[in-house]
Amino acid sequence: LRELLGPNVIAVPRPNFESCYRAVASKECDYALMPIENSLGGSIHENYDLMLRYDLTIVAEHDFRVRHCLLTKPGMDVKNIKYAISHSQALSQCDNYLRARGITPLATYDTAGSAKMISSALRGDAFGREMPEGCTPDNTAAIASDLAGQTFGLECKQEGIEDDDSNFTRFLLLGRRGVAQHLNKKIPCKTSLVFTLPNSAGALYKSLACFSLRDIDMSKIESRPMSAALLNYLRFKSAVTYSKEAASSQKYGKDLPRFRYLFYLDILSSELDEGVQNALHHLREQSDYCRVLGSYPAKSRLVGPVAEAVEALNAANAGKPSTGDLRLKKLPSDEDEARQLKIGLIGYGNFGNYLSQQLSQHEVRCIDTLDKSKEAEENNVEYYPNFDMTNFLQGLDVVIITVPMIELEETLESLPVDKLRNKLVVEVCPLNVYPKTVLTRMLPSEVDILCTNPMFSPGMNADGQAGKSLDGLPFVYEKVRIRDTSRADSFLSTFERARAQMVEMASEDHDAYVADAEFVTHLTGRLLDRNLLPVTPVSSREYAALCDLADLTGNDTFDLFYGMFKYNDRAKALLDKMRDNLASVERKLAAKEAYLAASAEMKNSERQKLLAECKMLLREMAKTSAPTPSTESKDEEGKPSS
Q1: Is residue 169 annotated as part of the catalytic site, yes or no?
Q2: What is the pLDDT of residue 363?
Q3: Which residue has the higher pLDDT, 210 or 608?
Q4: E strands within 117-200?
Q5: What rounded mean pLDDT belongs to the chain?
Q6: Active site residue 369
Q7: Cα 215 to Cα 481: distance, rounded to the nearest angstrom
Q8: DSSP 3-state of 254
Q9: How far apart (Å, rounded) are the C-alpha atoms in residues 94 and 145?
Q10: What pTM was estimated for this model as a whole?
């Protein structure tokens, strides 16, 4: 970090890679410096995947010479070292050194974190108890950088213990705004992009030809598998970002295998060059997903707002005494993520029950017209009977309304509105325009409003299979009226940490994209009852998908489905279209059946005719081949001669 951005940059340590992306995306940090590949250990695939999940852009790169140090408590004899703790890649890079000395490697989550563990154990802090079993400061060393040793007060016993002195790690600097417009012909630059290809012969060859035919040099290409669920989300997000026409042309579930392969490509040109523009246009014609991850200067150069920020920081600190390593221990969002909210669920049906499980880190209570005390107790949720609404609302931070959409207005009318002031009200309906209209009309301005559509069901994961994981599943939301942003962000971060795909979208756009698809999906699921889908020991993928659809939609109430019908202006037209399609299929089946019957009849008639002709020909042949009658010769006595 200091090599690239200078000594005055303020470092903010984060517990994992994804929290770095979140910090920049939420505007708490300006940039994130992420390792992307190592010359010995290869690519760091987690960061490749995270670049797809977050809309950050590459603005610079830096090749860092890795020098591992053996760090111990001060005064420790190297002969007493039995264990070495560090990140798995660091351990593999020092494998020969450790083997030669009989030191057992034990993997931990981080290199610097390993040094911190030993330091904390020396002080008796709780973090020191995170050391692997059998490890103590008296028998364990950490493999980390010299800076980690200085930071945590450890002694460096040996520097440069890596097996290969050509050990480099490539880092990418990620920001919210790109720097392509600040590049010129004099600055060597790179462009990184990612794309998918159809599974057809020569597809990769044709895609690379887009660049090679234009004399565009490529420095790296790598394939990486991705789930079909994430690909569908990326297609959906791309369609939302660029145009409604693109959305209508996408077929999000179109015969996708369980995994598709992404190709990451680095080219040695700027994306704004005319040749690169033409190549990208050509590539997008072949690919169903293509995204430029960033155009940036090569070899640790800085341009544009990044260079300006570093220069301003250095100028501000010029002539001042060094204050050492500048760093923040935490960000404001750390408190939001750790904040425990008091959340109330109005309505505790299937989906309310499911939400309470996802919100288990918070204090959750529920209320329902039916006795749900047993179900609530199983999920450690406090149950209130319907007549005790005042006590239920007392002290809540968030109120989630999980009743069917057709009961929303009636439910709001029954609530004591004064008790909702200074709370966050969240609706989770499959459509958002109608709930948004009702909530803004019926709730006073002191009530925060969040319209959401968690696009997942109880028992469904990203692959549409049974499970509670939200990884890859869309969570669409609109901050309709928010005064307490910290509370709203804390609520949303619960789903973000569960790896749901958070999509902020206006309710009107949401309904335009989703309403028809949701209605048709649930309509199809209700038509496919179990009488039509009997259990079979052998089934195709298509049949299994229909069974899953029937099961998933069967868990929802009819009131939910009726709400999709009532508050979607196009629902009746969709029903008519379904009827027309069914009638069309019936007509085609009847026409095919009639055609085959007529063909069979014609074939039978022709066969009979052919048989008659054959019989006639046989008779004719018999007549022509019969002997001609003649007078038999007789002997002189009038007897026939023998």
Answers
A1: yes
A2: 93
A3: 210
A4: 140-144, 155-159, 168-175, 189-196
A5: 84
A6: no
A7: 52
A8: coil
A9: 13
A10: 0.64
